[in-house]
Amino acid sequence: MSETKRVYKFGNKAAEGKADMKNLLGGKGANLAEMNRIGVPVPPGFTITTEVCTEYNLLGKDKVIKLIKSDVEDGIANIEKIMNSKFGDSKNPCLVSVRSGARASMPGMMDTILNLGLNEEVVAGLARKTGNERFVWDSYRRFIQMYGDVVMGLKPESKEDIDPFEEIIDHLKEQKKVVNDTDLKVDDLKELVIRFRKAVKEKTGKDFPDDPWEQLWGAILAVFDSWNNDRAKFYRKLNNIPEEWGTAVNVQAMVFGNMGNTSGTGVAFTRDAATGENLFNGEYLINAQGEDVVAGIRTPQQITKEGSKRWAVLASVSEEDRKNKYPSLEENMPEIYKELDEIQQKLEDHYKDMQDIEFTMQEGKLWLLQTRNGKRTGAAMVKTSMDLLTEGKIDEKTAILRNEPNKLDELLHRVFDKGAIKKARVLAKGLPASPGAATGQIVFFADDAEEWAAKGKKVVLVRIETSPEDLRGMNVAQGILTARGGMTSHAAVVARGMGKCCVSGAGAIRIDYKTRLMNVDGKSVKEGDWISLNGTTGEVYDGQIATVDPDLSGDFGKLMELADKHTRMYVRTNADTPKDARIARNFGAKGIGLCRTEHMFFEGDRIISMREMILADDETGRRKALKELLPIQREDFEGIFEAMHDLPVTVRLLDPPLHEFVPHEDENQQEMAVEMGITKEQIKAKVEDLHEFNPMLGHRGCRLGNTYPEISEMQARAIIEAALNLKKKGIRAIPEIMVPLTGSLKEFQIQEEIIRQTAEKVFEERKDKIDYLVGTMIEVPRAALVADKIAEKAEFFSFGTNDLTQMTFGYSRDDSGKFLPVYIDKGILKYDPFQILDQEGVGQLVDMGTKRGRTTRPKLKVGICGEHGGEPSSVEFCHRVGMDYVSCSPYRVPIARLAAAQAAIKDQK
Ligand code: ADP
Ligand code: MG
Ligand code: MG
To answer: How large is the average pLDDT for residues 535-552?
Structure first.
C-alpha cells in the first residue's frame, strides 16, 4: 500500500493536521485542526485531503473509495469514541456533517450536508435520547432536503422554478395556515419527511438511502463533485483559483443549534469587514441550524450590545423593541458571550489577522465550527493591516504583505455616499469595467460631452460602444456606459487608463442615437436625464447620487510610506498630459516612463498640419508641415516637463502607422485638398497609397524616423527646446528620449545620431545645455536577442511588453478578442497575456534583454512601460529580473508601489 496519508483526524484538543497545511487539508480543515491544537472547543472529525479529490477526478469513484475506506472508518470510530455515541446506532446515535473546503475560501460555492446518519430508526432513538421530538424531526427534514438536493440532484428545473423542497414546505404551510417554519408542529414535520421522500423517489427514480454508510459515501463523493459545479467554476475563474487544486472533505460530529431556546447558531467577525474598525461583531439566531443566519428567513440578532444598538438605529427599531425582541447575545446569554468573546480574541491573536468565525451553541455549550481570515473591503484591508502593526501584532513587512495590491483600486476613485446609494433605483447592470462612482447627465455623442462639459455640466457618455474618436468626450465625462463590449473593450481599457468610472456591456440597454433615447426594460431615458454608474459593481442607477472624494491620507498614506521604505524598484507613470502627470505624481510616481507623442497630433488644427506632413510629396513638403508642428509640440512638452519637474520624463518618438492619421472620410479629404491646393482625388490616391495590410508590422516606430528623419529631428528639437525654455524659468526638466520599435543596433544608432546632432545644434543656438538620455523601447523580439549590441549605444531600455507580447505570441492585440476568450475557456491559456505578463515565454525575452544589455553596459537603466507595469504579478517578475522601475497608468501607481515593495520583501525571504 502507498504511504500517502489521505485522512487527518482532529478532536478533543488534538489534531494530526495544522494551520499551514491548507494546500492539503483545505482552509476549513487546516483551521479546524489548528483550533483543536490551541484548545478551542471544536466537534471532533476528520479531513479527507484535496489530493484525494484529484485522485477521484482521475481514477473514479470505486478506486478512490477503496483507497480511503479503512481510513474513513477509522475516522468515524475516532468521532464515536470522543462523542461517546455510535454512527448509525438507533439507541445512542452520532450524526455528522460532511463539509467542503478548498485551499482558498470559496464561501457558499460548494456543498455541505448536515445531520447525516438519520433514518426512521435513528430518528426514533434520538427522540428517546433527547426527549425532543421537534428537534429530531426538524433535523431529519433538513437532512433529506440537503441530501436530496446535493447528492440526489433534486433541484429546481429552471431558474424560474422554486426549489422543489421549498415548494412542498410552502404548500404544507398553506394547508396548515401558518407563516413561519417554526410554527410547524411535530406532526407537520413528519408529514414533510414523507412528502420529501416521495418527491425524491418520483423525480429521481431512486429511494432515499436509509443506510448511514451509504449516505456518508454519497455525501463525500458529492462534495468532491461540487468542486466542478458551475458556481464553483465561475468563482474560481473570477478569483484566479486554479482548476487543479480540488477540495478537501471534512466529516465532523454534529452539534445542534436547533435543540431549543438555549441553543443557537451564529457568525462573527473579529473586526468590521467593511471599515476595518476594531470591533467584534456578528449575528446569531436562537433555535436554528447552520445557514439559517445567512439564509434570511428570520431576522438575525446582533452579538454585541454595541452592535445591536447600531443595528437598531439603521433598522429603525426602538430601544424598547430591540431589548425585548432582538436582544444581543451579550445581553441574552452573558456567559456564552463572554466565552465567545475570549475565543474570538484568542483566534485573532493566534492568526494575527481578522477572523471570520462560525459557532453553534447546543444547550448552553459553545462550539466553534470554522475560522478563516475574513474577506474585507479595500478600506478594511488597509486599516486592519495598519492597526495590527500599531498594536504590535505584526511587523512592517507582514503588514505590507497583508494588502492585496489590486484591492487598493477601490480606494482611489470617487465613491457614492453610503446613505444616498441605499435609496437609489437600479436601472440596469453591466460589467464593472473601471471602478469608481459617476453621476451625470446622459449624452450620446462625444462632441456633445465636450460641449456640455465646457458649460460646466456633468455628463455621462452613453454609447453602444466607443472608438478612439470618442477619447476627448470620454475624457471630460464623469463616467462611461456602453451597451456592448467586455472588460477589455475600448471603453473599458481607456477608462481604466484614465481612472474613470466605466460600466461596459450593459446588454439590457437599447440605444437609439437618432432619437437620443436609451431604453431599459420598456423604460426610456433621454439625453439630459441624470444617471449614476457604479464602476465597482457594474450597477447603473436612475438619477443623481451624491459622491464623495476618497480619503487617501491616514492609513493609506502610511501604507504607501512603508512600501517606499521596503521597495527596491520605483514606480513611474505612463502619461501624455500635464493633468495625468500631476495625478500620478500625487499618487507617488517618480517620473514618467512613457509619454506618447501621437495624441499631440490629433487635437484641433494640429491634425491638419500632421496630415499635410504625411501627404506631402517630398522632404520639403514634410519640413514645411513639421515647422508648423514644432511650436505646438514644444509647448506640450513644456507642460509635461513642468508638471514632472525634477523627475525624469521618457518621451517616445512618433510610433503609430502613419495611415492612422490620414483622412478617410470624404469631408476631411475635401478639407485637406483645399488646405494643400490639390484635388480631392489626389488626396484619395495618396491615402490609398498609404494603406497597409499589416499596419502593426508596417511603416511605424523608428521605421518612420528612419525613412523620414526630419520627423525625429523636429521632435528632438521640440523636446530639447522645451527643456531649455523651462531651465530659463528655473524649472528643471530631465528628458529621456526614447526610440520606439528598435530591432537592430543600426536602426537605433541612426536615430540616436539625429537626436544628438539636433540637441547639439540647439545647445549651440541657445548657448545653453541640459542633461538628457537617449534610449530605446525593447518591444521587437529581435531587440531582446541583440540587446548587448543595442546597449552599446542606448543609455536605457524600456520594455514595451504590449508589442513584445503581440509579436512573441504572434497575436494581434486588436484582433485577439475573437480567440483569446475561447483559448482561456479551453485552458490553452491560463490568462490574457496582454493583462498578465507571460513570464514563461515573453518573460524570457525580458530577462535575456536585461541581462544582455547589462553585459555591455552594467549600469543600464531598465524599466517596463507596457500595461503589465501596473499588474502585481508582472511587477514582481520585473523585480526579479532586476529592473530599476516599472511604469503604469496614473491610477495604478499606488498598486504598483505596493506590488514592488511586496516583491522586494518576498525576495528577501
Ligand atoms: P460553507 O463553506 O458554505 O460555509 P460549511 O461547511 O461551513 O459551509 O457549513 C454550512 C453551515 O453548517 C455553517 O453554518 C456551519 O457552521 C454549519 N455546520 C457545519 N458542520 C456542522 C456541525 N458539525 N455541527 C453544526 N453545524 C455545522
Ligand atoms: Mg462555513
Ligand atoms: Mg509599442
So the answer is: 87
